[in-house]
Amino acid sequence: MSVLTIAQNIAREVGFTAPTSLVGSADETAIQLLQLITTETTDLSNGVISGQTSPMNFNWQALVKRATFTFVSSQEAYSLPADFKDFIQKTIWNYSIRRPLISPITAEEFEIQKNYLISSGIDKMIYIYNNQIHVVPAPTSTDTINYEYTTTYIFQSSLGVGQTSIQADTDVCSINEYLVQLGAKVRYLITKSLINPENFSASFEYQNYVAAVQRAILKDGFGQKSPISINSRRNAYWLGASTQDSNYPAS
After folding, report:
1. Which of 1, 143, 159, 243 has the fewest CB within 10 Å, making it most exposed?
2. How many CB atoms lie within 10 A of CB 250?
3. Which pTM value belongs to this model?
4. Residue 249 to residue 251: CA distance in whole angstroms
């Protein structure tokens, strides 16, 4: 469903004349709907439900990407992807030696490691600044590093090319378009005073929107809850990572 279709659906549901175009239009309704769709998509991609102050601790799977880079001996800094937004915590691993990189670390911890007496070690730490990944201690190998991150490309062209903004009427939202339509509709009703701004959370439209977002989260890949374990191993993340590195017993 294109952004123009979303805008037309909202206008028809509310009782206004549906715009024939959005991008570059001088029509007041088109201009307003374009901005509301942009704002709603941005908020949802950031885990924010309109009207609520606490963001969701949730990443839409459509916005999660994988990236890789290779260590260069003695090189500390490595470039981030052009569409990088946030790291998915605990996903950055050294695939060559099958160990995690310790992340995230604070600015203070980064400086301590850079100036520490120990300048090498099997485990590396990462710190992000100046749009680069900084690795300490500096690598001495050419290992392959993989990680997951969320993208800033919250829109796509009709050909599937990622974008940070709406550039054409045929563009689509990277996340669930129906949720964007419901949320933008609530915003539109409020701006037109068709919903009381002081009590909009009690309206059917808003409650329907929130319920739809919550249902979508449960169905989205990252919304699934981890199964309850009946044994004492509560943190599987470190089970393999804490095994002995070398000098295994012969028997």
Report:
1. 159
2. 3
3. 0.83
4. 5
